[in-house]
């Protein structure tokens, strides 16, 4: 990143110099974008600044490029070339590359951790599934993507808090209690399947819960009133389901800083939020209900927040919850929701604005659907229950590492086809295996080096690394921290998945081309230094993804 900063500043100074000399007219300089060309022969970096500034400077892009290149100098620069309609390609001196690798070596295990940003804390809320049954594969994608986003933002220096919103109030919890109550009575011969609650949960886990209650307490709840019995079952079932949910997430390398109970919003925080919005004119009464004036803030219609029965809607709780988020001091709030919540974004943003906060400080990321494929055929149902495939079943079949990587490797807003056969395969076609194998290979190299009493010297002669595969690997390593910065800023953890795969590819190419043992000691030491930094980058990237970095495979 340092050389990119130097290069960006040199381009900017060259343009300002041309403006001062009257060669270019006074104009605002466009944002300078530097990219790594797809082919080495096109240079180390390239920019299209000449094309971007053509309109502002009223000149042909090639003429702008020629003027800029004449004014750019530096002892880090070997040469500059102009290509095509006005691309500027920069070729750096080799010592710049080696100095960059030496700097990465000095960072050690801190490589990949960027300086802390001086800003208000960021909250990322994700998964937040109803605690009424097991997590399914859709929740798994949210868990993997959300935790990877938190990890990459922390690596980029953002102060981040991760949060799970426990939907432990409302009808879904009442329906959970009714479902357990019916299964309990049914198992004891006091109810029939045909009378199962209309909105009840039919999962096998509900039967399991009822069976555990009977095993522990027998029929002692039969003599209670139904309200009393259901009150007890509600708490027992909620505690059990939440514990199972937390266990599944823990097994999936997904951990939260805060578990926020919806119950803590009722009734006081919900009432306070509604009162606040009434007082500032954003809630009005109509037909005995309270309505949010959301059309004033871009929604297509006003929304009920308190029904005529006095019962709050889901939106009322969400208003109170988001008010509480900002009251806790978060400067940016990120929610990861399922794609079916698309229509809900506008009303929540409207509520945020009505509360007096900037709706741009709330970002909602939508997760698209996951399709499981086995043998090229769509898998819809669990083999065990005949219902949706659970996250626990997926972990059991393909493992946490493969499941997480496959969930993260595509952007959240694209539909994901999850190939179960590929995820289980131990071949280079499986991207997570390909990356992990690179790390295991490096560990094997170091075991062999230790057996031959070979190690990295204090000041290895990095200039001995001249093979094309060595230079490509060095260049790829130097892009890692920039990739972290971009992945965090763009909410795109899939960039780290792709980077790790590409870095592994660079390493495998180097490994197949360059020997380490059996070559001159100084060259061997330099190559060991290179693979040391490579292993650190792979470990760090896999850590962001929540994937292990095995030493043997």
TrEMBL record:
SMART domains given in the database record: Arg_tRNA_synt_N, DALR_1
Catalysed reactions, semicolon-separated: tRNA(Arg) + L-arginine + ATP = L-arginyl-tRNA(Arg) + AMP + diphosphate
EC nos: 6.1.1.19
Record GO biological process: arginyl-tRNA aminoacylation
Keyword Lipoprotein found: no
Compartment(s) where it occurs, according to its Swiss-Prot or TrEMBL record: Cytoplasm
Source species, domain of life: Bacteria
CDD domains named in the record: ArgRS_core
Pfam families: Arg_tRNA_synt_N (PF03485), DALR_1 (PF05746), tRNA-synt_1d (PF00750)
Major location category of this protein: cytoplasm
InterPro entries referenced in this protein's UniProt entry, alphabetically: aa-tRNA-synth_I_CS (IPR001412), Arg-tRNA-ligase (IPR001278), Arg-tRNA-synth_N (IPR005148), Arg-tRNA-synth_N_sf (IPR036695), ArgRS_core (IPR035684), DALR_anticod-bd (IPR008909), Rossmann-like_a/b/a_fold (IPR014729), tRNAsynth_Ia_anticodon-bd (IPR009080)
Motif 'HIGH' region, chain ranges: 129-139
Glycoprotein among keywords: no
All residue ranges annotated as the DALR anticodon binding domain in the record: 435-553
GO molecular function: arginine-tRNA ligase activity; ATP binding
Gene Ontology, cellular component aspect: cytoplasm
Keywords of the record: Aminoacyl-tRNA synthetase, ATP-binding, Cytoplasm, Ligase, Nucleotide-binding, Protein biosynthesis
Residues covered by the Arginyl tRNA synthetase N-terminal domain: 1-92
HAMAP family: Arg_tRNA_synth (MF_00123)
Family of the protein in this entry: Belongs to the class-I aminoacyl-tRNA synthetase family.
SUBUNIT field: Monomer.
Protein name: Arginine--tRNA ligase
Organism whose genome encodes this protein: Anaerovibrio slackiae
């Amino acid at each position: 990143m340092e050389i990119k900063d130097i290069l960006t500043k040199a381009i900017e100074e060259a343009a300002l110099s041309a403006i001062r000399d009257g060669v270019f007219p006074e104009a605002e300089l466009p944002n300078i974008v530097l990219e790594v060309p797809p082919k080495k022969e096109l240079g180390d970096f390239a920019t299209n600044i000449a094309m971007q500034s053509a309109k502002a400077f009223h000149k042909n892009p090639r003429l702008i490029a020629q003027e800029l290149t004449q004014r750019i100098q530096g002892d880090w620069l070997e040469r500059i070339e102009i290509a095509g309609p006005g691309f500027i390609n920069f070729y750096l001196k080799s010592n710049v590359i080696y100095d960059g690798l030496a700097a990465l070596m000095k960072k050690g295990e801190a490589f990949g951790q960027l300086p802390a940003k001086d800003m208000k804390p960021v909250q990322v809320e994700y998964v937040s599934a109803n605690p009424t049954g097991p997590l399914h594969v859709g929740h798994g994608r949210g868990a993997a993507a959300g935790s990877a986003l938190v990890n990459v933002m922390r690596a980029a220096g953002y102060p981040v808090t991760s949060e799970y919103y426990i939907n432990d109030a409302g009808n879904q919890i009442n329906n959970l209690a009714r479902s357990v109550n019916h299964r309990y009575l049914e198992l004891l011969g006091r109810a029939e399947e045909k009378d199962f609650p209309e909105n009840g949960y039919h999962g096998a886990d509900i039967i399991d819960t009822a069976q555990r209650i009977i095993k522990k307490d027998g029929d002692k709840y039969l003599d209670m009133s139904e309200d009393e019995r259901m009150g007890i079952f509600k708490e027992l079932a909620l505690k059990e389901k939440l514990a199972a949910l937390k266990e599944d997430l823990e097994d999936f390398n997904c951990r939260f800083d805060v578990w926020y109970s919806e119950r803590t919003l009722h009734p006081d925080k919900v009432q306070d939020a509604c009162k606040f919005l009434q007082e500032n004119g954003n809630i009005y009464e109509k037909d005995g209900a309270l309505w949010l004036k959301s059309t004033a803030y871009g929604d297509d219609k006003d929304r009920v927040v308190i029904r005529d029965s006095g019962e709050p809607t889901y939106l009322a709780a969400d208003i109170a919850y988001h008010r509480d988020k900002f009251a806790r001091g978060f400067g940016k709030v990120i929610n990861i929701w399922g794609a079916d919540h698309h229509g809900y974004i506008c009303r929540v943003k409207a509520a945020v604005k009505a509360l007096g906060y900037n709706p741009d400080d709330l970002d909602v990321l939508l997760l698209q659907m996951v399709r499981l494929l086995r043998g090229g055929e769509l898998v819809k149902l669990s083999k065990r229950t005949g219902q949706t495939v659970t996250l626990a079943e997926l972990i059991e079949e393909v493992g946490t590492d493969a499941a997480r990587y496959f969930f993260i490797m595509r952007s959240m807003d694209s539909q994901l086809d999850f190939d179960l056969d590929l995820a289980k395969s131990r071949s280079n076609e499986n991207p997570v295996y390909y990356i992990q194998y690179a790390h295991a290979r490096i560990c094997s190299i170091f075991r062999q080096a230790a057996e031959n009493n070979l190690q990295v010297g204090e000041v290895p002669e990095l200039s001995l690394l001249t093979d094309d595969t060595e230079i490509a690997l060095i260049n790829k390593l130097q892009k890692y921290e920039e990739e972290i910065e971009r992945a965090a800023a763009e909410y795109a953890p899939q960039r780290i998945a792709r980077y790790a795969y590409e870095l592994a590819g660079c390493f495998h190419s180097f490994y197949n081309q360059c020997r380490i043992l059996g070559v001159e000691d100084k060259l061997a030491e330099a190559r060991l230094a290179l693979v040391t930094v490579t292993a650190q980058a792979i470990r760090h990237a896999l850590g962001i993804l929540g994937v292990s970095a095995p030493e043997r495979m």
